[in-house]
């Protein structure tokens, strides 16, 4: 919540699951400036680290993506000068929607990278690991699994590249394409990482090998920047021409 004061605003509240909440030098926060206007009463503010009343809170102990910190950020009678209002008052919600398409493409690219890494690790291991005096890559069961993994990765790459190309063009609406890329690439990351663990067998469950990390990291892609269920809603609404 943000209340107007002489020369600026006073913010109170908290935000969970904030990427780089402890280390970022600048935060963009969405706060309610007029609760009577619902989504049109939300505004964006720029807050620098060290601003009185603004501090990071609990740092989350996550399953995966542990190199990227996630934490709560807390606002307690945090005064923000009027010039720190980002954009127009009341336009914060609209502004946040405008950046979602790019965020979805970013997560699609992240999922694609994880899937590619898991595929490469599984392929390399299958060539090196020997059973019955031959590499396990010689066995049809492993070959079929790798083939399916590679096909899914290439399909995810095509969707992600298409959405990124449309975004790069600047004047093409790409909400549907970015949601499709995010949905498919993130779920491919989970499936391919799971299959990589299977290829590694028991070693796939051991931290000495990379498969378990791909497996843990992949799951976030189906949650961050909107869950898979939300992406399906977005895609369906675009197909049906619904605005809400």
In a nutshell, what does this entry contain?
It contains 6 helices and 9 strands.
Strands ordered across the widest β-sheet = 1-2-6-5
Calculate the mean pLDDT score and round it.
96
Can you write the helix and strand succession as a string?
Answer: EEEEEEEHHEEHHHH
- Per DSSP E runs of 2 or more residues, the count of β-strands stands at 9
Shape: elongated
Q: How large, in whole angstroms, is the Cα Rg?
A: 22 Å
Task: Please state the structural category.
Answer: alpha+beta
What percentage of the residues does DSSP assign to strands (E)? 15-25%
Largest sheet: 4 strands, antiparallel
Helix percentage range: 40-55%
DSSP helix count? 6
Low-confidence stretches: none
Distance between the termini: 25 Å
What does this structure look like?
With 244 residues, the chain is α+β, with helices and mostly antiparallel strands. Helix content is 46%, strand content 22%. It is built from 6 helices and 9 strands, in the order βββββββααββαααα. Strand 1 and strand 2 form a beta hairpin. Helix 2 packs antiparallel against helix 3 (140-169). The chain starts with a strand and ends with a helix.
SSE blueprint and pairings:
Layout: E1 2-5, E2 8-19, E3 26-32, E4 42-48, E5 54-59, E6 70-81, E7 85-86, H1 92-98, H2 100-128, E8 130-131, E9 134-135, H3 140-169, H4 175-200, H5 211-218, H6 228-240
Helix pairs in contact: 2-3, 2-4, 2-5, 3-4, 4-5, 4-6
């Amino acid at each position: 919540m943000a209340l107007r004061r002489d020369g600026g605003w006073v913010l109170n509240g908290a935000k969970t699951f904030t990427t780089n909440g402890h280390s970022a030098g600048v935060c963009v926060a969405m706060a309610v400036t007029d609760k009577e206007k619902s989504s049109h009463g939300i505004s964006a503010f720029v807050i620098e680290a060290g601003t009185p009343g603004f501090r990071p809170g609990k740092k989350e102990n996550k399953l995966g993506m542990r190199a990227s910190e996630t934490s709560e950020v807390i606002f307690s009678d945090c005064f923000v000068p009027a010039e720190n209002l980002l954009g127009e008052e009341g336009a914060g919600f609209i502004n946040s929607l405008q950046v979602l398409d790019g965020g979805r493409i970013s997560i699609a690219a992240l999922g694609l990278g994880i899937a590619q890494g898991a595929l490469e690790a599984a392929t390399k291991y299958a060539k090196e690991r020997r059973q019955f005096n031959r590499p396990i890559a010689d066995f049809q069961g492993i070959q079929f699994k790798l083939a399916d993994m590679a096909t899914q990765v290439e399909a995810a790459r095509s969707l992600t590249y298409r959405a990124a190309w449309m975004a790069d063009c600047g004047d093409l609406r790409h909400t549907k394409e970015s949601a499709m890329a995010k949905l498919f690439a993130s779920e491919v990351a989970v499936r391919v990482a799971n299959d990589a663990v299977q290829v590694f067998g028991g070693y796939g469950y051991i931290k000495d090998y990379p498969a378990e990390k791909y497996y843990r990291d992949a799951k976030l892609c189906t949650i961050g920047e909107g869950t898979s269920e939300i992406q399906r809603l977005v895609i369906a609404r675009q197909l049906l021409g619904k605005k809400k």
